[in-house]
Task: structure prediction
Amino acid sequence: GKKVYFNNPMWPGEAHSLAVEKVLYKGNSEFQEVLVFESSTYGKVLVLDGIVQLTEKDECAYQEMIAHLPLCSIPSPKTVLVVGGGDGGVLREISRHSSVEQIDICEIDKMVIDVSKRFFPELAVGFEDPRVHLYIADAVDFLRCAPKGKYDAVIVDSSDPVGPAQELVGKPFFETVARALRPGGVLCNMAESMWLHTHLIQDMIYTCRQTFKGSVHYAWASVPTYPSGVIGFLICSTDGPPVDFINPINPIEKLEGALKHKRELRFYNSEMHSAAFALPSFLKREVTFL
Ligand SMILES: NCCCN[C@H]1CC[C@H](NCCCN)CC1
Result:
């Protein structure tokens, strides 16, 4: 089938192509262009403003890691907030944790939710969990009004910081997240590619170091359909007990995983959890974590 090329100023000089069997949906929400197509080899693909958000074949790597890296690093998380994540994949993963009692999700673009429910039922199943409370709102406003210390974990499953998500990497935003987290709580946000964006990663780490008094760790996973084939995660903990004893690198919560779910974990396990924090030498040189 015809190829669709994605190049973008965020990764100049390179383009990514996927063979298209059939375009299934193309529309414009009030925030971005939404495209869904059946690819030849990666299943269905969701694209926002020309940037691949997920494919059926490799979404497991991103959704499982962004959810379980934070939730398996604190003892029995109860209240979780998802910023973005309108496709529902992260909700599906959070619902594996039996200790979780409330899952708030703040997604700005309702079209992403509607399109996911129509074309990606394997991800949108996350919205069916009774613990999920959906807010269609700008997370900057939502978090400004969120009660202090409400959440054990905040997961920022955002698109790239161009367009609707550009405010989600600023210091004011991180400060509202830190305020909404309880002491010893944890933030996990999408943190770009070590091959493409070390300056952006450095800026985020610098900001998080100032904002989160606990620890700041960078982890990464292989996602073939993201530019450079990897995606990073920033895991930050607020101060206060018992975070001093919690090292996100060694998961303390063993995920019951498949037992609670008809769908097996396809990427995450405790070895992958620990391995995700191992960083290449160039990154350790280029980015100061302290
Ligand atoms: N629930 C999946 C949402 C997708 N999150 C983002 C989609 C865009 C992607 N660009 C990666 C750009 C390479 N640095 C990052 C993850």
